[in-house]
Amino acid sequence: xxxxxxxxxxxxxxxxxxxxxxxxxxxxxxxxxxxxxxxxxxxxxxxxxxxxxxxxxxxxxxxxxxxxxxxxxxxxxxxxxxxxxxxxxxxxxxxxxxxxxxxxxxxxxxxxxxxxxxxxxxxxxxxxxxxxxxxxxxxxxxxxxxxxxxxxxxxxxxxxxxxxxxxxxxxxxxxxxxxxxxxxxxxxxxxxxxxxxxxxxxxxxxxxxxxxxxxxxxxxxxxxxxxxxxxxxxxxxxxxxxxxxxxxxxxxxxxxxxx
Length: 259
Ligand SMILES: C[S@@+](CC[C@H](N)C(=O)[O-])C[C@H]1O[C@@H](n2cnc3c(N)ncnc32)[C@H](O)[C@@H]1O
What we know:
This protein has nine helices and eleven strands. By secondary structure, the protein is an alpha/beta fold.
């Protein structure tokens, strides 16, 4: 009887390979085959042994070279050969990562699957810029929201509840719509001068930062012509950015832009 394979859905964090968990690093270096996303950084891919087969299933916004059902089929196919598959995903597999869709497909095929958590972009970018997502007296909570809807459907977020000056709002996948998002937050009651920090390619040597406010972030983010993933942190905690003591590692990274 053939040995049944096993798939590990591995969160690889926001880019810096030092942010991998020990478990993630072990699985990446020991797997029989590696299946990886566009958001998995080159620095993380460098730890994959040269002898391991690698399958790219990268997707770009509005461009899906490998549709999700096909990714599911690839995972099932590789595991059904009796292989241990490391399915690498950017950040954490269960934060805007379609992780459960892959888990379900594998379980339906009768395969074993384990989820390995990763540091999500919000946590990575918070640490690399020195901006805490909560802070006594400034933010009593934090919300992670998507700035993008499937098939470019209109954004129908709960603007009234998001426009809470005591909650930090972290926007994933918002680069194309940040102007519209900011206008909606202002219309729902947030002050126009609420600060916004955009972090591009956070935790990698290509990290760029932009500090603006709700009134200007749309125009300024467009002018910045970011390439690669961008995360937006909205709320009074961004005022702490300039005062933050940054570690030598962080201050040696990338560039920052003040407006
Ligand atoms: C499809 S979501 C995946 C999120 C991922 N599962 C996570 O937990 O971070 C992709 C979005 O995550 C954010 N993102 C991921 N990596 C990032 C990074 N290194 N710097 C800035 N934003 C990042 C961006 O907002 C990007 O559009």
